[in-house]
Every structure is written in C-alpha cells, then in structure tokens.
Input
Amino acid sequence: MVGLGKELRVEEESLAAYLNGIQASPDVVEQALRYYLAERTDDLPPEEMRELLQKQAKDASQLEQHLAMLERSSDELEDISLAYLAAAWADPAERDAIRSALQAANKSLPVVETFILATVAMYGMYLLATRGRAREVKRVRRAEGGSFVEEKETIYADPRPWSNLLGLFRPSNQPGQ
Output
C-alpha cells in the first residue's frame, strides 16, 4: 500500500517540485530542454531547427534579433526553457521523458555554445506556437435548416511574456492573433 501511495505522489508531482528536488541549476534546465527536444524531434540538428525557424518566421530579422537576445541572456533562456518544459509537463505521458532529460542534464553538462541553446529554446517556442494547445473546445449547435454541426475551437498556449516570440510563427488563422 505504501508503494502505491508513493507512485501516486510521483505522478501528481509538479514540475517545480521535481526541479526543487533535484536542485536544478539554470544550465540543467536549458540542457534538459535540449535533450528533451532532441528526443521529440529524432535528433534534429540545431542548424536544421534554425533553418526551419527562418522559413516559418513572419519576420526573419526579428527572429534573428530574438535569437541574439537569447544568446546573451541566460535568464531569458532559462525562462523559455521552463515555459516549454512546463507546457510539456502538463501532459502526464511526457513527464517521464522530461524527468529523464533533467536527470541526464544533471549528471553531465556538456559545454554547448549559446547559439545552440538559443536555437533550441526558440524552436521550443515555435513548437508551442504551432502545436502547443492549451485546450480544445468542441461544441455542437443547430445550424440553419435544423441540422446539427460540430465546431472545434483550439486555444493555443501563450506563455507570457514571450507572446511576441510566438507571434513570429503563429499563422494568422489561429486564435490570439
């Protein structure tokens, strides 16, 4: 019975509690995002991430400005990494992968150029903007003529204060534009 209770607590554990438990440094958080996204994207190289970002950005010069800012600001890089990891943590099926990424990052921190970490963080924002659904609302209503129609509205995650970064990638037909 004790084991069952312990498993339940692990499943309900918040990301903040887990990060506190492992005493995660900013470097651990940033590297964990890199490891987690590497697993989620089949090891997509940062160069290819950057190319994709440039193709998808509404304003390439603004993208480059944000990337340069991230390369200079460890605090912003950590905040964005936390925003993405928190959004992923909301899905209980992703928690083990996030824990594994954090454990791997906590064991050995490789020296990684900040441009790689900035690119990975920005790619995380891209994923949030394009696939980071906060919720979907389905409605059934009666249409003209008496038939029923089902409508689906998708609400995308908007981890403030980075909404301007998300705006670089959000298609104009998505909510919040």
